[in-house]
Write a sequence for this structure.
C-alpha cells in the first residue's frame, strides 16, 4: 500500500516536472533553460522584471476588481448621481512616484548589463606567443546558410558551429547579402548580421551539447531575409577544450579526404570538376578560404542535419540534391539536372554522391 | 439648395458620398473603407494562423506567406486602424468642440480619397504580380532584393495614403485650434478631442520621416539611386532609423485616440467626471512627446552600441509613468461611480487588464539586454498584439458601439454586441497570451513554418484555435450591423442617457450644419452641466439663430486622388523598360492631378447659405437627415 502511494507520488512529481519542462520548451532552443552565462544574465533580468511587473499587475487588478464589483449600477440604484470628484494631487503624486521607483530598480541592472554584454575589450588580448587568449569566430550570413571561419586557426566550416565550453567565444558578424540576425536562444540573445558593418559580441557556452537529446543546440536566423527565412537554421556543437583542439587539428590537416569504396569514389568523381562540378561552389577542405558560394562540406558527414533542418540521412540528402528549391525556396543552389546537361541524375549517381558526402568527416 | 430631406436613389447617394465635404459623411466613408480593410487584414491573419496551426503545414508557400504577413501588418496599421480612428475623429471631434465642420472641408475630402486610392493601389498588388513581401517594416536590404513589383506597390501606395493622413492631421490641428465654440477653452476640451489634437500633432511630425524613407526607397528601386544599396556605399540602417522615427510615434497615433475613446466611455458609463482630468491631459501630451525619443528601442539588436542602447532603454521606461497615470486615473474614475455595463463599457473595462498586460511586457522589452532575447521572437508578436488589439482594436469596437447611434441614428443590438465582445475577448487572449511563451521558447517571428522537433506544436495549435473565436466575434458584429440597419429604430439626442459632452446635445445623426446655433460652453462636460441644471433646451447658445454659410460639395478631391492613383501605375511600370505606355500613364495621371488643382485654384466656389427660415422649419420638423 505504502509502496503504491510512493510510486504514485513519484509519478505525480515526474508528470509535474514534465509539464513544467514542456512549458519551458526544449533545452536545445529555449531561453527559459539557459545554457550559457549570457543567457543566464538575460534570464535573471527576465525573472526580476517579471516579479516587478507582477507586482504592478496585482495592484491594478485589486483596484480594478473592487471597483467593478462595488460600484455596479444595480447596487448603486438607477437614479443615483455620483459625486463629481475632480481628482487628487496626493494620489497623482503617489502613482507617479511609485512607478519611478520601480523603474529605477530595473534601470540599474539594465544599464550595467547593457555595457557588460557589449564589452569586447578582451577580444584582442594576446598571450606571450602571440596567439589570442580567446577564440574568435567570423560568422557570415548568406542566403539561408551560415559560414563559420576560425581566423586564428585558419579553418572554415558551415552550418554547424563547433565551440569549446566554459570560455568566452567572440563573434564577428557580417552578412554577404540580406540582413540576418544570429540567435542561439538557449545560449544568449541575438545580434543582427548587417550587410554594411561587422557586429561583435561574445557568448559563453556552459553545457556540452552531447548531454542534449539531439546532441546540438539550435541556432536561428531572427530577421526576415526572404522566403526561406524560417529554414535558415544552424546547429551548435559544444565540446570541452581538449576535444575542440582535436577537432581543430583534424580540420587543419591538408590531406584531401579519401573516398572509401567504389560507390563513394564514383561520387567523388561526380562531385569534382569533371562531373557535375559541385566543387566550384562547395569546398571540401576545412583549411580552405572563406567566401564560398555554397557551404563548406568538409564536415558534412559529422553534421546533424541536411540543409540545416532536414533529418541527416541519405534519403533527404538525395532529395535535396535533386531539387533544392523544393526544400528551401529561394536558395541559390541549382538543381542537379541543370548541372547534368538537363538530365535527371540516376538513382545510382545519387547514391554515389550521397555515399561520398556522408563520408566527408573529420571526427573519428 | 434645401435642407429638406428627399428620398434619394442609389446612384444619387453614391454621387453624394463621392462629392461630400461634410465631416460626418466623410467619417462614414472612413468607417466603411477602414472596416473593409479590417476584414481583409483579418482574413490574412486567419490564413497566417491556419498555416501555423501545425508543424510543417503546407497551406501556404514560403513566398506567399511573406506576402500575407506583410500585407496583414500594413493593412491593419495604415488601412484599418488609422482610418477607423479617423472616422471617429471626423464624426465626433467637431461636434465635441461645437464646430460647424472641420477647418478645411475640401481638404478633409481630399485626405480621405488619397487614403482610399492609396489603399486600393496597395491591395491591387495581389492581382498584379504579387504583394510586397519584406514585412510591414520593409527593411531595406530585403526590400531592394525583392523581385517583382510588390515593394513598389508598398512604397507608392503608402506615399499616397500617407499624404491623405498628413492632410487629415493638419486639418484637425487647425480645427481644434481655431474652431472651438465660445467658452471651450483648451482645459475644457473633452479627452477624445485632446487625444485627437495630440495624435494629429504626431501625424504632422511623424509622417514626413516615413515619406522621406519611402521616397529614398522609390528612387532606389525605380532609378537605382543607391541610398540603401550597400555595394554602392549606401546604408540600410538609415532606413531602419527613418522607419522607426515614424514607426514609434505611429503606435501613439493609434493608441492616443483609443485612450480618448475609453476616457469618454469611463466617464459616461460611470456617470462621473473624469478623475484627474488635468493629469490625463498632461499624460497624453507627455506620451506624445516621449513617443519621438524612443524609436531606437526597435533597434537594440542592430549593434548601435551600449551607450545608445542604454539611453534608449531608459527613455523607453519613462513612458511607463504617464501611461500608469492614465490607468490609475481611469480606475479612480469608475471608483465611486455608478457603473452601467453596456457594450462600450465592457470593452473599456476589459481594455484595462489587457492593456496593462501589453504595457508591462513593453517595459520588459525596454530592458535592452533582455530584449536581445525577446526581439524578433514571438514574444514581441504577443506584446504588440496586446497593445494594438487589446488597446486600439478594443477601442475601435467600443467606439463603434458608442458612436453608432450618433453617426447613423440607430443603436447596435446590445445583446449581439456582448456576444461579439465575449468571443473576441476570449479569442484575443487565447491567441496571443501563449505567444509570449512561444517567444521565450525560441520561436522567431515571421517564420512560415516550424519543425515538429522544436517543441512549439501545442502552443501554436492553441493560438490558432483562439483566432477562430476572434473571427466569430467579428462575424457577429457584421450580423449586428446588418440587422440594426434593417430594423432602423431611430434614437434621440442622448441615446445612452448619460452623455456628458456636446455631441450628445445634438440630434442623432446631427443635421448637416451641426448646431443651428453655436453653443456656449460653461465648463468641462458642458452638456452634463446643462442637464444637471435642468436646462430644457439642452444647451445655452452663444448666438441668435441666423443664416449659416456652408461649402458646396466637390468632385475635385476624388479626381485629384484618382490622378495620383493613375500616375502611380505609370511610375510602377516605367522602369520595366519594355513598357513604353508607362510614361504616358505617368504623365496622364499627373496631368489629371495638377489639372484638377488648377481648376480648384481658378474657379471660385463661394458656397451657399442656409436661411433662418429653413433652419426654423428643420427644427420644427425634427428633420435631421441633411440635404
Amino acid at each position: 500500500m505504502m509502496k503504491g502511494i510512493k510510486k504514485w507520488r513519484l509519478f505525480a512529481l515526474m508528470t509535474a516536472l514534465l509539464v513544467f519542462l514542456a512549458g519551458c520548451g526544449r533545452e536545445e532552443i529555449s531561453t527559459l533553460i539557459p545554457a550559457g552565462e549570457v543567457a543566464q544574465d538575460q534570464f535573471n533580468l527576465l525573472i526580476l522584471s517579471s516579479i516587478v511587473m507582477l507586482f504592478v499587475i496585482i495592484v491594478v487588478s485589486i483596484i480594478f476588481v473592487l471597483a467593478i464589483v462595488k460600484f455596479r449600477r444595480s447596487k448603486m440604484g438607477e437614479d443615483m448621481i455620483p459625486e463629481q470628484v475632480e481628482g487628487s494631487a496626493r494620489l497623482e503624486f503617489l502613482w507617479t512616484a511609485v512607478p519611478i521607483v520601480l523603474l529605477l530598480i530595473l534601470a540599474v541592472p539594465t544599464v550595467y548589463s547593457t555595457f557588460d554584454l557589449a564589452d569586447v575589450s578582451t577580444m584582442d588580448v594576446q598571450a606571450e606567443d602571440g596567439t589570442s587568449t580567446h577564440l574568435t569566430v567570423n560568422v557570415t550570413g548568406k542566403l539561408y546558410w551560415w559560414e563559420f571561419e576560425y581566423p586564428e586557426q585558419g579553418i572554415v566550416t558551415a552550418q554547424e558551429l563547433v565551440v569549446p565550453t566554459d570560455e568566452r567565444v567572440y563573434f564577428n558578424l557580417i552578412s554577404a547579402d540580406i540582413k540576418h540576425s544570429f540567435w542561439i536562444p538557449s545560449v544568449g540573445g541575438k545580434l543582427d548580421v548587417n550587410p554594411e558593418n561587422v557586429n561583435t559580441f561574445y557568448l559563453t557556452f556552459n553545457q556540452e551539447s552531447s548531454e542534449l537529446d539531439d546532441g546540438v543546440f539550435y541556432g536561428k536566423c531572427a530577421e526576415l531575409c526572404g522566403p526561406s527565412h524560417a529554414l535558415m537554421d544552424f546547429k551548435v556543437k559544444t565540446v570541452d577544450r581538449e576535444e575542440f583542439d582535436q577537432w581543430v587539428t583534424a580540420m587543419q590537416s591538408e590531406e584531401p579526404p579519401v573516398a572509401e569504396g567504389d560507390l563513394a569514389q564514383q561520387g567523388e568523381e561526380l562531385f569534382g570538376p569533371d562531373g557535375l562540378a559541385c566543387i566550384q561552389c562547395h569546398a571540401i577542405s576545412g583549411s580552405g578560404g572563406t567566401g564560398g558560394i555554397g557551404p563548406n562540406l568538409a564536415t558534412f558527414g559529422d553534421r546533424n542535419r541536411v540543409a540545416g533542418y532536414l533529418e541527416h540521412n541519405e534519403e533527404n540528402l538525395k532529395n535535396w540534391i535533386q531539387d533544392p528549391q523544393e526544400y528551401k525556396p529561394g536558395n541559390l543552389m541549382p538543381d542537379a539536372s541543370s548541372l547534368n546537361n538537363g538530365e535527371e541524375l540516376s538513382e545510382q549517381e545519387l547514391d554515389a554522391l550521397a555515399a561520398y558526402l556522408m563520408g566527408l568527416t573529420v571526427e573519428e | 439648395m434645401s435642407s429638406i430631406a428627399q428620398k434619394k436613389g442609389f446612384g444619387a447617394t453614391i454621387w453624394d458620398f463621392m462629392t461630400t465635404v461634410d465631416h460626418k459623411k466623410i467619417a462614414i466613408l472612413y468607417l466603411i473603407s477602414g472596416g473593409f480593410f479590417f476584414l481583409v487584414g483579418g482574413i490574412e491573419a486567419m490564413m497566417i494562423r491556419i498555416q501555423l496551426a501545425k508543424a510543417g503545414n503546407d497551406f501556404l508557400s514560403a513566398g506567399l506567406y511573406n506576402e500575407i504577413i506583410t500585407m496583414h501588418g500594413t493593412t491593419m496599421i495604415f488601412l484599418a486602424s488609422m482610418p477607423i480612428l479617423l472616422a471617429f475623429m471626423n464624426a465626433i471631434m467637431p461636434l465635441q468642440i461645437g464646430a460647424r465642420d472641420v477647418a478645411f472641408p475640401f481638404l478633409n475630402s481630399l485626405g480621405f480619397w488619397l487614403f482610399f486610392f492609396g489603399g486600393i493601389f496597395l491591395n491591387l498588388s495581389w492581382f498584379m504580380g504579387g504583394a510586397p513581401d519584406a514585412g510591414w517594416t520593409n527593411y531595406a536590404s530585403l526590400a531592394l532584393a525583392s523581385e517583382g513589383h510588390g515593394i513598389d506597390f508598398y512604397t507608392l501606395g503608402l506615399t499616397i495614403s500617407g499624404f491623405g493622413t498628413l492632410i487629415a492631421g493638419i486639418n484637425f490641428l487647425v480645427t481644434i485650434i481655431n474652431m472651438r465654440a465660445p467658452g471651450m477653452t483648451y482645459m475644457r476640451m473633452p479627452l477624445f478631442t485632446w487625444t485627437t489634437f495630440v495624435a494629429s500633432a504626431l501625424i504632422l511630425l511623424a509622417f514626413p520621416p516615413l515619406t522621406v524613407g519611402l521616397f529614398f526607397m522609390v528612387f532606389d528601386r525605380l532609378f537605382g539611386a543607391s541610398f540603401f544599396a550597400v555595394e554602392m556605399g549606401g546604408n540600410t540602417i538609415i532606413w531602419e532609423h527613418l522607419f522607426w522615427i515614424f514607426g514609434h510615434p505611429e503606435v501613439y497615433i493609434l493608441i492616443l485616440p483609443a485612450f480618448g475613446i475609453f476616457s469618454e466611455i469611463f466617464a459616461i458609463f460611470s456617470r462621473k467626471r473624469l478623475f484627474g482630468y488635468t493629469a490625463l491631459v498632461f499624460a497624453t501630451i507627455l506620451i506624445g512627446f516621449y513617443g519621438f525619443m524612443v524609436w531606437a528601442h526597435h533597434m537594440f539588436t542592430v549593434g548601435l552600441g551600449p551607450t545608445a542602447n542604454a539611453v534608449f532603454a531608459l527613455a523607453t521606461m519613462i513612458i511607463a509613468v504617464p501611461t500608469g497615470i492614465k490607468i490609475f486615473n481611469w480606475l479612480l474614475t469608475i471608483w465611486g461611480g455608478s457603473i452601467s455595463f453596456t457594450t462600450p463599457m465592457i470593452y473599456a473595462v476589459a481594455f484595462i487588464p489587457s492593456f496593462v498586460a501589453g504595457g508591462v511586457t513593453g517595459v520588459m522589452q525596454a530592458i535592452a539586454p533582455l530584449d536581445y532575447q525577446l526581439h524578433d521572437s514571438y514574444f514581441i508578436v504577443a506584446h504588440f498584439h496586446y497593445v494594438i488589439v487589446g488597446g486600439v482594436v478594443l477601442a475601435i469596437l467600443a467606439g463603434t458601439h458608442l458612436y453608432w447611434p450618433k453617426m447613423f441614428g440607430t443603436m447596435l443590438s446590445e445583446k449581439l454586441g456582448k456576444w461579439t465582445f465575449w468571443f473576441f475577448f476570449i479569442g484575443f487572449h487565447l491567441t496571443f497570451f501563449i505567444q509570449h511563451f512561444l517567444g521565450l521558447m525560441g520561436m522567431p517571428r515571421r517564420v512560415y513554418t516550424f519543425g515538429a522537433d522544436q517543441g512549439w506544436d501545442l502552443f501554436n495549435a492553441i493560438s490558432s484555435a483562439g483566432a477562430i473565436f476572434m473571427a466569430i466575434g467579428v462575424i457577429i458584429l457584421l450580423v449586428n450591423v446588418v440587422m440594426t440597419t434593417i430594423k432602423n429604430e431611430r434614437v434621440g439626442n442622448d441615446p445612452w442617457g448619460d452623455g456628458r459632452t456636446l455631441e450628445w446635445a445634438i440630434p442623432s445623426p446631427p443635421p448637416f450644419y451641426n448646431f443651428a446655433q453655436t453653443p456656449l460652453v460653461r465648463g468641462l462636460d458642458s452638456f452634463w452641466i446643462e442637464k444637471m441644471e435642468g436646462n430644457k433646451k439642452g444647451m445655452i447658445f452663444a448666438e441668435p439663430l441666423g443664416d449659416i454659410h456652408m461649402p458646396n460639395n466637390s468632385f475635385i478631391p476624388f479626381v485629384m486622388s484618382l490622378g495620383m492613383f493613375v500616375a502611380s501605375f505609370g511610375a510602377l511600370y516605367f522602369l520595366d523598360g519594355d513598357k513604353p505606355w508607362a510614361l504616358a500613364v505617368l504623365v496622364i495621371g499627373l496631368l489629371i492631378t495638377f489639372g484638377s488643382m488648377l481648376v480648384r485654384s481658378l474657379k471660385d466656389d463661394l458656397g451657399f447659405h442656409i436661411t433662418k427660415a429653413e433652419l426654423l422649419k428643420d427644427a420644427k420638423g425634427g428633420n435631421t437627415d441633411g440635404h
